Amino acid sequence: MATEIFRIEGLAELESKLSEIMALGRADNIARQTLVKAAKEAMQPVLMEVQSTAPYDGERPRDEKNPIHLRDTVKLAARIPNETDRRSTMINQTDVAVAVVSVKKSAVSLAQELGTKKLQPQPFLRPALAKHKDSVVALFKDELSTYINQVAAKQARRKK
User: Fold this and answer.
1) How far is Cα 58 from Cα 44, in angstroms, rounded to an integer?
2) Whole-angstrom Cα distance, residue 36 to residue 48?
């Protein structure tokens, strides 16, 4: 499976501002209020794309045997990396926030995304990220700037 590394440059000013406000409060809370929120907002286009492109069998309506379709299980999560995340080869020890668009982990979802000996792959997760990677990066920068400014303003009001 191919791995793509995103490098976001030009954030020196935001990083400096973030470091300043983290020095004034609990770093984990500030990371949740800025980096995690920005990452979650930035991944919204990917979430929407996955929801619209996840394989769906219109011939098989929901019933007791098949209560949900794959696209019904799509979710977006953003967080500070936990121990399980840190064991992943996809997460670096220096990563501060993680945002993941996923579906219910099952043999069906893996078979749809990657294929099997008998089933051709119908990827929908990886193409969604590839399609929106530039907008994800741009949104992340914009949202991070907004959230940093909000937290900085909140801290400035508390100082008074």
Assistant:
1) 25
2) 19
pLDDT band at residue 146, thresholds of 50, 70 and 90? Answer: very high
How many whole angstroms separate alpha carbon 90 and alpha carbon 98?
Answer: 10
In this prediction the pTM is: 0.84
Helix (H, G, I), strand (E, B) or coil at 10: coil
Nearest to 85 by CA among 75, 73, 94: 94
Q: Computed from CA positions of residues 77, 78, 79, 84, in that sequence, does the dihedral angle turn out positive or negative?
A: positive
7-59, pLDDT tens digit by residue?
677 778 888 888 888 888 888 889 999 999 999 999 999 999 999 998 877 77
Give which of 101, 114, 122, 124 is closest to 45, Cα–Cα: 101
Rg for the chain, CA atoms, rounded: 19
Strand, helix or coil at 75?
A: strand
Tokens standing for residue 61: 């309506």
